[in-house]
Fold:
Amino acid sequence: MIERQGVPLILCAPSGAGKSTLVKKLCAEFDLSFSVSCTTRPPREGEIDGVHYHFVSKDDFERKIRQNEFAEWAVVHGNYYGTPLRPVLDQLERGKDMLFDIDIQGAAQLSLSLPRARFVFIFPPSMEILKQRLEKRGTDSMEVIEKRMKNAFGEIENAHWFEAWIVNDDLEKAYDELRSFYLSCTLNPKLRPQLLKSVLGR
Ligand code: 5GP
Structure:
């Protein structure tokens, strides 16, 4: 018997807020399955096809859109990104909790298509600190940093509807808050429609 349905946990944050580190920590501590997105952006060094993303052509991506293969999709920083629907439904039905690292446009779509989805927004302590972090990473040109900063303003201005807000000023504290929220999500009675029957034995 399946004990409970899986939790779809959606994490959104502007680039540089520290989301990837929090995702890694949560996946290392708990048996969560990471939703592997499709993207048309080229792989970065060290990224593995099928692990970090499914890297697909623009034609392939557009065919998948037409065939309704995505739970959500969006154009982010000029490239297509989308969450394949079938594996998500399969995993959740099998009771597997899933983590989604997607942008705010995709999160808004999942709030309509995945009724049990839970939404966390991770903030940097300030826009100034966000800019400093992006500059310190040293991976992006000034032009890209300006673009990411502009996107960050837009995302933060639209974060009012999320269920949990975490300010990442201290990684351990932010992680503690994230794991507490995740654990509370796993207790949702709606994920256990059979529990009462099973406890009562009738
Ligand atoms: P990156 O190219 O740096 O890996 O990701 C850029 C942005 O795209 C990040 O904000 C990431 O959360 C978002 N993203 C990754 N996968 C998806 C997806 O499947 N759907 C949407 N809507 N956004 C995604």
